[in-house]
Fold these 2 entries.
Entry 1:
Amino acid sequence: MEKADLTVVSPIPSGRLGEEHEEELLALLAERTGRYTMGDSTSVRAETAVRLLNGILFCLELEKRSADASTRGAPTRERFFAGVREAQRLQRRAALLYAQAKRWEPPVVNLAYSETLDALAEFFRRYDPDFFAQDIPCAIDYPLCQPVSERLAGVEYMLDYLRRWLTESAFLRALDAGLLRALYEGYYGDYNDLLVNLYLPAAEAATLCALADQPVRKLLLSTTERENAARLIWSEDGIAAQSAVLTAARRVCEELGQGGGFARSYAEQAALDLFVRLRARREPANR
Amino acid sequence: MLCRKGRRSYMEDKKEVALAERWEARLQAELRAVNERSARFGLMLNEQGVTNVAARRRAALAETGRVELGGSAVPAIIDGFCDSPYLQQDEYEETLSALVEAFYYYKNESGDRLTDGELICAMRERYDASGGSVEAVIGTTLDALCRAAKHGLQEEPEQEEAAKEETDGES
């Protein structure tokens, strides 16, 4: 066979041959392709085959990470179906989180928040762990304060997105609607129509309140109070300043009843981002 | 078959060639097996013909960006055409190769909405209705192919237009 004529390449992505038994994987891909076409077609577009293969590999990865170790070392086909069952289990868990998100909305929402919340329902209607477990078949427009890692895909992405969504909602539900509205108008202007995150200004404002030794629910500081807080961040001792910011974030979580480890680390990360941004805005004379 | 971007090592290339050769060998075995059925109609591929048809199929898949991971459609195409009164042994290999190329092209054109069986039937209808003309099968559109399968062979719109102009010119 002349190499110049060869336009065929292995369907197995580079670097995976050592992890999966190639023969079993190809046989499984052939089987899944046949199921996908319901036996009506012997051929598919290359892009379709790649998608199907990525779905298989995604499920094999899920199987590796699942708590159920009963299929470890089993043939590829058995591990794949265990991965599909794991994807289905995670999908059910995500559905519970979604139901929770629909019940517990923040006191103030914007268009992006509402529309994304509705759009997420499409994921549960269209998610297909049998063939394309790696897909996220819905539009996710609302930007989280701390986005989901791009390394995640499929139902794992959705789970993490919902977890962060709920963390942000729980934080905002502890605050007054009127104060939030005033905060957003000052921070964003027309917050309702913009594709903006609602948690970030609230987390920052609450942290600044804690730094200024004010009740965190107050949210809106006077100019003097704001300058006092900024002075702490701008102090020469960067390590001490950072420590003060983290302590303020923890106080915010305590006062707002956000006791969970994830909620606290989420708030701390928002506070650190604020610290880095404000430090970067320091007057040149202060350096 | 499937495309993969990026630089490949010599070993990866070697493995891929081995894989493709194995799949090709599998098709060649299928073609030898289907010879037993087509022989009843006086149609057989010799060894060179088997190799040639397998190579044309590989090229057609690559050109159309399609892959076959299980069996191939080629035996079904043979089964679908071998009892045609217009298919003769002396042109069997070339006709079959052209039909295979057309088949994968039309699969793409249909957006995979036609099953293999439906498409082969439509191609066979057109082939027989045109007196065994491969050009009639490959030189048409998918719509016309399916229309012909449903309603019988009809003149192409361009041919109708040309015929009409000729008639108008005479009068």
Note: Strands of chain A lie at 43-45.
Entry 2:
Amino acid sequence: MGAPGPREVPPVSTAPAVEGPIGRVQTQLGGLNEGVRSAARRSRRVSWFAWGFLFAGITGIPVLEVGILLSGLTPSGPNAVTALLIVGGFPAFVLLILTVRELLVGRGEAGRPSARTVGRPGAAAEEPPGFRVSLLTVQESQKQITRIRGELEVSMIPLILGGIGVFEVVGDLVLLPTVGPAAAAISPLAYFFLPYAPLVFVVPFIWYLWRVARQWVDRYQRGLDDQVRQLISLEGEFLGRFASDRGRG
Amino acid sequence: MDRPDLFVLGRLLEALALAEEPPLRTQLQQRAGVNYTMLENYLEFLTGYGLAELNGDGRLLLTAKGVEAYRFLSAGLSRIFGVPDAGAPLRELSRPGPAR
């Protein structure tokens, strides 16, 4: 739209509703609900994948042991190690990758909570929510995000336990047969400590995942808290300035 | 009316502000997406507080106070929700009438 000029004959408008900044805000608010629902779905998936990872880790260890017993393989052969790790560790590995993916995608979406529905066909045709409904929507979203925070924090438990199990197996199957003899020459205690050596990687890895989860939730919470505070303040300021008895007439 | 809904007010102000020409009640009702009863209540509010007025043809116009109210609300909501406000055309500012 250019600078205001002489009035032209306006075309007959067939648009059912105006779409200025306020209209766009309302369209965006309609998307907020869906954004938070999407976050809840992702958080649920993180939880399932994390517990699945633990389960796959727990069941993977007997698979490895039984594999050794039945086939007569020894973990010392490189081919045997590869085969056993693939059979026993593949499900846990896949579930861990899926967990990390959901966490990263969730964190990415949190920066744009309503982006999924802005411009969605049919969104503008829906009845736009009123101020109270919108405020309730934002407040309801806050509660949902608090629940998601709890769910993500609980999901860290199976990730830690599963991580300990998986890394311990890696220590058993990879470090012990390869570095073990050389390390035992230095200290006989090496056979005791080597299987647990990869566990040092669990701490930074879980810390990283926990940080991603926190950033995900914090982005939502910060945005929603600000929106609620500012909406209430804007309403009070608007009514005081334009709809008080002083301003009547 | 006890406490007007900010978004309904905003939609009505926006419909008046962005209209090519002053709308009739039914046109305003369609553009703002409100029902008839709500429109009547809010029109009473808008005219009562000097934000809008009816001309002789039964068309609705924003007053200067109404334009200021729309700008205030539009800028505030745009800031809160990160919606661009810079392009909001306020055609009534160039329109001769009560808005000037």
Note: Chain B has four helices and two strands.
